[in-house]
From TrEMBL:
Descriptive protein name: Bifunctional NAD(P)H-hydrate repair enzyme
Function: Catalyzes the dehydration of the S-form of NAD(P)HX at the expense of ADP, which is converted to AMP. Together with NAD(P)HX epimerase, which catalyzes the epimerization of the S- and R-forms, the enzyme allows the repair of both epimers of NAD(P)HX, a damaged form of NAD(P)H that is a result of enzymatic or heat-dependent hydration. Bifunctional enzyme that catalyzes the epimerization of the S- and R-forms of NAD(P)HX and the dehydration of the S-form of NAD(P)HX at the expense of ADP, which is converted to AMP. This allows the repair of both epimers of NAD(P)HX, a damaged form of NAD(P)H that is a result of enzymatic or heat-dependent hydration.
Matches recorded under Pfam families: Carb_kinase, YjeF_N
Family: In the N-terminal section; belongs to the NnrE/AIBP family. In the C-terminal section; belongs to the NnrD/CARKD family.
Gene for this chain: nnr
Record note on cofactor: Binds 1 potassium ion per subunit.
Keyword field: ATP-binding, Isomerase, Lyase, Metal-binding, Multifunctional enzyme, NAD, NADP, Nucleotide-binding, Potassium
Gene Ontology molecular function, alphabetical: ADP-dependent NAD(P)H-hydrate dehydratase activity; ATP binding; metal ion binding; NAD(P)HX epimerase activity
Residues the record lists as binding (6S)-NADPHX: 81-85, 151-157, 192, 302, 418, 497
Residues annotated to bind K(+): 82, 147, 195
Domain of life: Bacteria
Length: 553
């Protein structure tokens, strides 16, 4: 499980290692530069030779006939240690026979000490020009462009670099359709972050000149030790291209980790596999009994999707609670899923007398008018605190009085809002999240979800391509559907209902709320990836057997 750090956590780990005497800042900078060069050659082995033909701006045949020339790199260095990494990369490429041009944003005299040392090492080998004199056309016809302007220290807008960033985005787009060299334009590599992106939130800092871009773009982003939060949330996911992490020999101390674990956010990379493995001697009740409430006639599809999800994910029994007038509609559509007539809150309370029902899903297409009393019955303090997923209308119904909902919630609940539902329940938090950031670290989706979970007193799963899951005690994880797990076709009607069903089924199987939400979110994306384009919500649960087989279950 990868831990995602904030800039401050990364600095603390780095400082602890330096203070312990096991490494110096300068050594870390050297390793960072080496990591970037390594990543470049791993990504583009064709650049690993000492020389190449050089980029052909036009791809014209007469150019190709010329004698081979060294590969050319342009390195853009900034005023902090990110710039320091850039000087190391410039030197290492030069040592390999590359022709390297270096441009600096800022003043050499003001560079921090380690960056200054590497600046001087570079000036023994080549020139440094001001970034403002970097003729961009010249830059674009090189083989490699290194963005070492800003890394984890970005704290505000970079308006004077907006045009440069705009050009970089253009180049990244071009290169995605044409292979390297054929268009004579460079591979773009960001060191740690595409410049302008806030490391904690993944957001960039807009400025008045909206014509230009607010942050850089890259084909690959090389980060160090562990990826940061900002690589997986916010605007950065569109800018990083691909995130490559390089070890720079930092070992966070056990003590540091122990005292900070609640502040660390995990990136979900696997299901809780051991928990998923069914015990062979379980009977159907051993795997729990999930109940899903449907809406009224004509509004039962969402709950049926959730129920199917709960059953496929392994709940032993799944029952749909259906209003009398919708029974025929539901009965004609389900087989292995059971039905019970539940018209109102009194019926629900009576149904929940059955203590074998150990997980409940309430909300998908439930109907705003019916939702409030039914939610109250589901969460009735007189009942045992039963694991309960609240989704869709069960959340929106409380838009006018979210505190009334929070007062009823308990620690076995899971809320699964999308952005709109989140804003209805947590308007002030949503406002902070949607405000234009002016200084870093900017308020992030991770901050927002943690704050919401604390207020609600239960697990909150804030949906999106970057789904964030947080518990009231600060535990947090991100389920990213970006980069190699990109699954845009998951944004389809009913997909969220299936997710709610997955969580409910896992709760029935005995997962704790955080584990159920994390595993369900991860499986949900796996199912989408398994199916591919053309996916509709009905397909999602049907991929689970294949996903489970791949997991060796
Ligand atoms: N931590 C580690 O373990 C390791 C870290 N390493 C590397 O160090 C990087 C972090 O270095 P860093 O802290 O010096 O930050 P960085 O991103 O270079 O920028 C800071 C400078 O930018 C300035 N500045 C900010 N915003 C600005 C703006 N809008 N416009 C203008 N200026 C602005 C800011 O000025 P200030 O805000 O202080 O006025 C400051 O001068 C990290 O990303 C990685 O690449 C590696 O060497 C390996 C080990
Ligand atoms: K950078």
């Amino acid at each position: 499980m990868t831990e995602l750090l904030t800039a401050a956590q990364m600095r603390a780990i780095e400082q602890a290692a330096i203070d312990s005497g096991e490494v110096t800042g300068l050594e870390l900078m050297e390793r960072a530069g080496q990591g970037v060069v390594e990543a470049i050659f791993e990504e583009w082995p064709e650049l690993a030779g000492a020389s190449g033909r050089g980029a052909s701006p036009s791809g014209s045949p007469e150019y190709l006939d010329k004698e081979e020339v060294p590969f050319r790199a342009v390195v853009l260095c900034g005023p902090g240690n990110n710039g320091g990494d850039g000087f190391v990369v410039a030197r290492l490429l030069h040592e390999r026979g590359w022709a390297v041009e270096v441009f600096l944003y800022g003043e050499a005299e003001k560079l921090p000490p380690d960056a200054r040392v590497n600046y001087e090492r570079w000036t023994d080998l080549g020139e440094v020009n001001d970034v403002s004199v970097c003729a961009m056309n010249k830059g674009w016809s090189c083989d490699l462009l290194i963005d070492a302007l800003f890394g984890t220290g970005t704290t505000r807008a970079l308006p004077d670099l907006g045009e440069l960033f705009w050009n970089m985005e253009d180049m990244v787009d071009c290169f995605q359709v044409e292979p390297l060299h054929e268009i004579g334009r460079p591979a773009i590599v960001a060191i740690d972050f595409p410049s302008g992106v806030c490391a904690d939130s993944g957001r960039d800092f807009p400025h008045r000149d909206e014509h230009w871009r607010f942050s850089a773009s890259a084909h690959i982003t090389v980060c160090f030790h562990q990826p940061k939060l900002g690589h997986f949330i916010g605007d950065a996911v569109e800018k990083c291209g691909k995130v490559v992490n390089k070890d720079i020999g930092l070992r966070p101390s056990h003590e540091w980790r122990k005292s900070n674990w609640r502040q660390i956010c995990k990136l979900l990379q696997a299901a809780h596999q051991d928990w998923l493995r069914k015990l062979t001697d379980q009977n159907k009740f051993g795997n729990g009994h999930s109940v899903v409430l449907t809406g009224e006639r004509g509004h039962t599809g969402a709950a049926r999707l959730a129920a199917r999800g709960a059953l496929r994910v392994g709940a032993g029994l799944v029952t749909l609670c259906v209003p009398e007038d919708a029974c025929q509609e539901v009965a004609s559509q389900v087989t292995s899923i059971m039905m019970k007539t539940v018209d109102d809150a009194a019926d629900l309370s009576a149904a929940l007398e059955d203590k074998r029902i150990n997980a409940l899903c309430i909300g998908p297409a439930l109907g705003l008018d019916r939702a409030k009393p039914l939610v109250a019955a589901a969460l009735d303090a007189g009942q045992q605190a039963r694991p309960t997923v609240l989704d869709a209308d069960a959340l929106s119904a409380f838009a006018d009085e979210p505190n009334a909902l929070f007062a009823m919630l308990h620690e076995k609940c899971v809320l699964t809002p999308h952005g709109g539902e989140f804003a209805r329940l947590f308007p002030d938090i949503s406002e902070k999240l949607n405000a234009v950031p002016t200084k870093g670290p900017a308020y992030s989706k991770v901050d927002a979800t943690r704050e919401a979970a604390k207020r609600a007193g239960c697990v909150v799963l804030f949906k999106g391509a970057d789904t964030v899951i947080a518990a009231p005690d600060g535990r947090c994880s991100i389920n990213s559907a970006h980069y190699e797990r990109s699954a845009p076709w998951l944004a389809t009607a009913g997909s969220g209902d299936v997710l709610a069903g997955f969580i409910t089924g896992l709760l029935a199987r005995g997962f704790d709320p955080m584990g159920a939400a994390e595993t369900a979110a991860w499986l949900h994306v796996e199912c989408a990836l398994k199916f591919g384009p053309g996916l509709i919500a009905e397909d999602i649960p049907e991929q689970l057997p294949a996903v489970f087989r791949d997991l060796g279950l």
